[in-house]
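Ticket 4471: requesting a sanity check on a complex prediction with pyridoxal-5'-phosphate. Repro inputs:
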Amino acid sequence: MPGGVNSPVRAFRSVGRTPFFVEKAKGAYLYDADGNRYLDYVCSWGPGILGHAVPSVVEAVQKACENGLTFGAPTEKEVELAQLIQSCVPSMEMMRLVNSGTEAVMSAVRAARGFTGREKIIKFTGCYHGHSDGLLVKAGSGLLTGSVPDSAGVPAGYAAATLLAEYNDIESVRRLLEENEGQVACIVVEPVAANMGVVPPEEGFLAVLREAADASGALLIFDEVITGFRLGLGGAQGYYGVTPDLSTFGKIVGGGMPLAAYGGRRDVMSCVAPCGAVYQAGTLSGNPIAVTAGTEMLKLLIAHPEIYAQIDQSAARLEEAYRETGLTVNRVGSLLSPFFTREKVRDYQSVMTSDTAAFARYFGWMLEKGIYVAPSQFEAMFVSAAHSAEMIDMTCDMVKEYGKSGMIL
Ligand SMILES: *Cc1c(COP(=O)(O)O)cnc(C)c1O
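Returned structure tokens:
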């Protein structure tokens, strides 16, 4: 495997270490093959909002397995999951289940192009939308970590149809819409940017994007693969009160299994085959085991909405501890990032003022204390309901101790 891993950030290259290999996980802890235990603030990059190996999810999956692992035919369970998603996110009038966030965003963009008959799309520098060709332009996540601004192997023609705007800079969007009048199919955005570290949308940014999209005839796509079911049951669109035309979900919605969803306006989604001419398919789409895990996860979240206040509070306490160290901290709900810079972080440019060598020292120090944060400055810290008050206390103490170590910046 390239780098020994199946997804680049896992290789720990940017923090100059070799990765631990996980043997098992339970609640807030990961256990590696060398017998170490880590308090986990990565949570599989988001899905683990209730911690690892949630008993009722595991049980439901075990039971479902007995009835067969895949059918390639529709099941009632898929309808149930779609209805649960819709009950939480009303803008999802019609949707498709797919296997990964990458697939969800790729398909949503295709639907937007098919519906509008336009080819260009606008994305934001530092936002990550999976690894499909047209979206690997100035993307975040592992591309920032490895200092690869664009991937090799992406035809220039694909990238040319992707126009780049700056996050939190509405003028950059207006300019592109003007210069490409009548040609922009969609604006795709992470409503809270969380793949260059956490960068919240500034007051009004999402609402103005909505207006700009409407005025130009472009569709607005919220990539809620991270924010969906994390900022609340209604995702970022519920949190900020701005409704996109299409949305994508992943991570939490699969309950730890490979499942994602895209959907939105009925008229747009009616363009997808077999109803319309936009082709999108999948042998394992709506896989019964993945659907079971997702359904059980959403049922738990719907039954326990109080966990959102709990994880928000936990994250707020961590935020405070990081702030005491003098670092810049951004937080939205249970997503946060300490940035190794003293500058305010509001876009890609300010994110890049971070001292990644200082981050790597901090990462190693925390890991040796048994605390696992994402092995990159450009990923979010994920707080789960399995993080108890005592675990948060312990983490805050460690952060403060690190702050006093004189190694911060
Ligand atoms: C993780 C992520 C994706 C890609 O999802 P995969 O399941 O890794 O393909 C897309 N968009 C955002 C915002 C993400 O965080």
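Notes from triage: Residues 260 and 348 are 27 Å apart (CA to CA). Leaving this open until the requester confirms.
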